[in-house]
Amino acid sequence: MVNVSTDTWVKAPGADKSSHHANAKIASNVSEVLAKKGIERPVIIGVAADSGCGKSTFLRRVTGIFGTEVSKTHTPVGNFISVICLDDYHLHDRMGRREARVTALDEAANNFELMASQIQALREGKSIMKPIYNHETGEIDECELVEPNHIIVIEGLHPMYDTRVKKSLDFSVYLDLADEVKIAWKIQRDMAERGHSLENILASIESRKPDFAQFVDPQKRDCDVVMEILPTRLIPDDDEKKVLRVRLLQDENSENFDPIFLYDEGSTIDWVPCGRKLTCSYPGIKFHYGPDTYYDKEVAVFEVDGGFEKLDEMVYVETHIERAGTKFFGEITQSLLRNPTAPGSKNGTGLIQVIMAMMMRSVYEKVTGKPVAVSGN
Ligand SMILES: Nc1ncnc2c1ncn2[C@@H]1O[C@H](COP(=O)(O)OP(=O)(O)OP(=O)(O)O)[C@@H](O)[C@H]1O
Ligand SMILES: O=C(CO)[C@H](O)[C@H](O)COP(=O)(O)O
Description:
This protein is an alpha/beta fold. It folds into two domains: 9-173, P-loop containing nucleotide triphosphate hydrolases (Rossmann fold); 224-365, no CATH class. The protein is 29% helix and 23% strand. It is built from ten helices and 15 strands. It has helices at residues 32-37, 55-65, 94-100, 112-123, 163-167, 179-192, 198-216, 314-318, 331-338, 348-368; strands spanning 9-11, 25-27, 43-48, 81-85, 128-134, 139-146, 151-156, 171-177, 225-231, 244-251, 261-262, 269-271, 285-294, 297-306, 321-322. It has a nine-stranded mixed β-sheet with strand order 4-7-3-8-9-10-14-13-12. A four-stranded antiparallel β-sheet has the order 1-2-5-6. The longest helix has 21 residues, at 348-368. It binds adenosine-5'-triphosphate (ATP) and ribulose-5-phosphate (5RP).
């Protein structure tokens, strides 16, 4: 990335925590980018999940919906949205973690002070020089320049773990996969694309479980929305884990967004639209909407079990989804039709991902008071 900024720099708080992070900096002035791009203040969104749970896939859909050409740099930057991976704040390189006998999920393996100071700086409109964790080499590379943007997503294992970082967030999302689905997706990716053996994949999932339970999973209790991805209930004893039941749990008392609903807000609705208006083949598709509690919180649940046969017919379902923040009739369907082969496009994962992207847009509009122009690629 070319440094075109005229920022002056100070060492970032937390940079002394690791020799790898010694060059991490924060600009002492507000970036010129703000005025150039007309940014009111960056809106910060956290997306948390374990490794291999579909964060990158989801965020590719989100950046597409914001219609922005995204750079192929380590930190993807579009004209409207940038996506920071919090793995960049790992304290140790891969070898160092092995020596210290910690997993990347452990609090002790991450530089939360640096993360908090840099995310807060971006929120204030300042540029940062941020470390890079290189997943190919397992090493920590030279810092890169990250400038403020309209929306900055921070994704990874811990966006809501540290209270200082959490306070910087305007909207928080947790992707919660049932173990069976997590294993199926991991196997598909790590065997097919990364050449790992089945044994190694299962051993890695098993060895991460205690730290996952202690440091990552609890974040879901206090998020604006949680997307649960579970095995279907439409097929008894389904082994393949290809048909999914996807639940969107929406905090009823969240400050920056209003939950979507099906037909009638506050009612409990089970809906099987298969028939004249929606083509279905086995096992079909079933929707549910209604109130529930989630860790003592009131939530509105929107659930999709099964898949769509013909994506363009989704528009019929869309007409019954209320308060999704769409800009025109059929926007959700059109967005899915733009990427028909992306993972999840024909089931609840894709549909709910698009809904969450629209929520992000609504949060941005609410926080800044500025409408986002309709676009998308
Ligand atoms: N909705 C979906 N339906 C089916 N498969 C999916 C879906 N989303 C993601 N996957 C698959 O799961 C695997 C992991 O997805 P992805 O790389 O997006 O996860 P990640 O959380 O970004 O992982 P990491 O943190 O390890 O980089 C990929 O093989 C992807 O194709
Ligand atoms: O949980 C993870 C989040 O992506 C990774 O395992 C962690 O970042 C370490 O990466 P690597 O295995 O490439 O050293």
